[in-house]
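Whether sequence alone determines local backbone shape is best considered at the level of individual chains. The sequence in question and its structure tokens are set out directly beneath this paragraph.

***
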Amino acid sequence: MRRGLFTTVGHATRRLGAGVVGHLWGVIGTVSLSLVILYGLPATGIAALADLPLRLSLLAALLVVIGGSAVIGTILKRRRARAFEARLMPALGDRDILADRMDAALARLKRAGGRNYLYALPWYVIVGPPGAGKTTALRYSGVEFPGQDLLPDHAQGFGGTRNCDWWFARQAVLIDTAGRYMTRETDRAADTASWAAFLDLLHTHRPHQPINGVILAFSIEDLMRGTPEFLNWHAATMRERLAEMHATLGIDIPVHVLFTKADLISGFRECFGGFSKMQRRDVWGCTFQGGTGKDPTYQRVGEEFDALVRRLSDLVVGWMAREPDSATRIAAFGLPEQMALLRPRVEDFLQQVFAPPRQGRKAILRGFYFTSGTQEGTPVDQILGLMSRESGKAQGPLPAFMSGTGKSFFLHDLMTKVIFAERDWVIFDRRAGRRARFWRRIGLGLTGMVTAGTMAGLGLSYWQNASLVRDAEAGAAVYLGAARAALVQSVIEDPDPLKVLPHLDALRQLPGGYGAGPAGPFRLGFGLSRQREIGRAARQAYCDGLERLLRPRLMLHLENELPRLVIAGDAAALYRALRVYMLLAHDPEARGNGDAAIRSYFAQAWRGAMPAAEAAALEAHLAVMLSLDGDRAPSLRPDEGLKAAARAGFAGLPLTDRVLTVLEERAFAAGVPDLVLPDRIGADSAAVFRTTDTTALGALAVPGLYTAAGFAQVLGPDLGAAAELWRSEQWVRGDTPAPPDTARQLAVLRAAVAERYRQRFDTAWRDLFDRLALKQPSADPPDYARLGLIASPERSPLLQLMATVAAETRLTDTTVGADDIAMLAQAISADFADWHALTNGAPGQRPADAVIDGFGALHSVLATAARAPSPADDDRLSRTLAALSAQAGDMPAPIARMIAATVADIRTDDPASALSAMNAALAHDITAPCRAGLARRFPFADGPEQVGPGDFAAGFAPGGRMDRFVADHLRPYVIERAEGLRPDLGTAIGQRLRAETLARFDAAKRIQRAYFPDGMTTPRVAMSIRLEAASPAVARADLTLQGAAIALVPGGPAADVVWTGAGTGVKIALYGAQSEPLGTFDFAEGNWDVARWLRRAAPHVQGNTVALRQDINGHSVGFRLRFAGDTVPFLMPELGAFRCPETLD
């Protein structure tokens, strides 16, 4: 990619710039004059001029003159170049290495722009007193100085002397003079002689145009702090130096004045510190327009300064509206006033420097500007300074905001677009200039009429192509800079695709890439187009990025998921994951187009795990990657051992589940979307509903196959082909023997798939209902807006939920074919008959409307009581709650549960009712999942089954079930202390809370701190392991902890390991001095094998350190493990003693 964007296109751009633009005018002029001689002379009607020999002679003479002039000019320029380089090189001293680098730099510059490169560019002299920031301004201006990196110190130019530094940019040559030339304070005679020699050098080697301008730098700090005498002296000194330049060089000098270190103006850093790089390149100051060289521009300094302050005031007003920090706004607000206080000094200083003497003007003020190269030092608040002088108190220091950041402000465009753009503004030999302009205009007039159209086309094409090249190079540079660390990774350890999403987005948006629109051929044509090359390189870079950044992380995700599913015993999910894994890896055994399978799998995996916008972006990248699979050979291979383990894990999976897995993917491919709850019931759903686990509301979804559209478009048409579908999927099973009753299952496969579909249809919707709950309805008095939203007939998310469920489960309304499919539709519809009953009837008269009316009545009673309390409020509230509770008896279980939770939330003044509701929530949200996923499983019990990482995180991670229950139910009635939860005896419910139950929540909190540091949502235990001692024969021990392999030597350094719950097994292999194997200790039972190993090894625990000894084949090794926290997580007593909370009273 770099080769395509930078090498090919870069060379083409340089050839276009040097070969076309540099010589185009000369070629056009010569061709035009030749055409005039050959064809124009006969058109005059004069016979003598029409003579062919005469015309050929004139043409030959023209070519001789032009060619001879070019040759002579080239020879003279080369002589001057060699002479000048000879004068320049001795200043570098006697150091051979520096001279060698100078030669290399000059050679590089000549290759870039020709032998006359140094003398075809404008030259500028930078002058100013010591400490004015001249070199800093150049260094941080953003102007490119090719070859400068060849010197040992970039701050030193090519001259490298103590007199001046030479900076060679692509657009100009800048000569940074020593500040002592200005002031001559140290050795006046020597400084004067050096200055005169320097000017003589310029005049000798560039007699016609010694320089193109002067950049005069003066520090804002000196301007603000300097006394009038100090400023007057500096102004007189600068005036004298400019006069000397005029006298020696014989030109009227255009001068641009830079007031450097503008960041020392109070408010500058606050106002401009947040500017982007492009904004910081802008120009802040005034360039006098329309000047002829005779205009007294110094007299307009005051009015231009006022205009500058007015523009700054407008900028600050707009900026303050967007700045949230009050201190920053105050500081920035004062910047215009600070600038206004500078006006008298700036105006007086510039008038003293540039007011002409009696004998005529010496220097011309072209503009004045405020810049900053680096931000060091403390800003000067002139207002506080004025107040301190008036009060006699010293001004306190101001904060050095942004000090030393090294950002440059208002330098780049000033150099490139203002100063360099005025290269021809210098006034010299006016009569020669007038003659040259006259003939130039004649030539341009003659050639312009002939070539205007061609030049316009070439210019437009060049500009478009140059812009395309610049944009491509800039985009590629940004991408490479950001993605370099990810690209050089040889082993991917983190499967999170979000970390590479910005890199993929950048690649997609490269000019000519997949995300960029095509450019018109006319604008990019004329033989200069680089669109095809750039587009090809951009697309190739994007394809490579997808393969190097995205596919390995997707593979790693599946390689982590497959072992987890094997341990969990989830055969259906294991089958689907292996199928996707093999398709994604282009496994030779895989059959068919797996794009839909891969996309649907990861769409569901990413849903709720990340923001919707980022998930959509990843899905778009995944779709492009899959669409390109046919154009490239696979670069990754599946893990054969993992495949075998997965196949063994789902060997007994019924054929029905395998068929339904394929049908789910077919639904995705057919455009049947998953039913994502917030998308279907509206944006207000987030204000009303919450999930009962740690997932986002957007994670609540039903696969598209289990909706009305999935039933009608996929299941109905494809159910008859169930056997063919199963046979087409034999490659997933591989050589694993088929279930022994395969023949029987095939005989009844159609009916079995229908029945299994009905079960999974019900499970998909029940899972959604189990994870959905209402947010606390009474949380926002006195308006109770949430309750009002639930009760709104037009916007109620609860009403939308009931309507959506009814519509998606009433399958008898869909078009069906065979009788068994119609019967299946009737059976599923019957399973959800209570939901259908909610929406039967006319709008406003349905049972669902009655539920909404009940919530509306409750909202009215609560809002009225909050605004105008009365003695009858309690009675009305009790009747309303009783009526709402009565409705729950006829509702589907999820709606009844939401009604009951609402009633319990309102009845907080009734401890018994409130505790009853809290115990119901405890049983549903904590006890049931705890018993199912945690109890009687290792590490909470010594059974063979182990707790999966997902169940462990769902229970104990920050924001998990335990945390959420405390936040949602217990927090108002407990006091949270360092030692744990204590009942709040000041509340009626707090007096009835059981201390034993609170202690179980405390134990869960300690487990959370041990396994989920820094708020992480997945387990992470960091440890270091050291082999402290071993039998004499043991020279090395290779230790593998659940996939992490380390090599240890007795008494050697410790190795760091991180346990995340992934992987299985503990293996210790001992080796002798000649690497001969001495014995192996190996077992693999699950994802908690490290904990089992520690418990079985008779460990000695002290704080966060555990020591243990392992005997292997007659050899003994002793390990010491030190953990990051203050305990040994795998051996903490809370694990073995933990019991699921069962009741609160």
Summary: The longest helix spans residues 430-487.
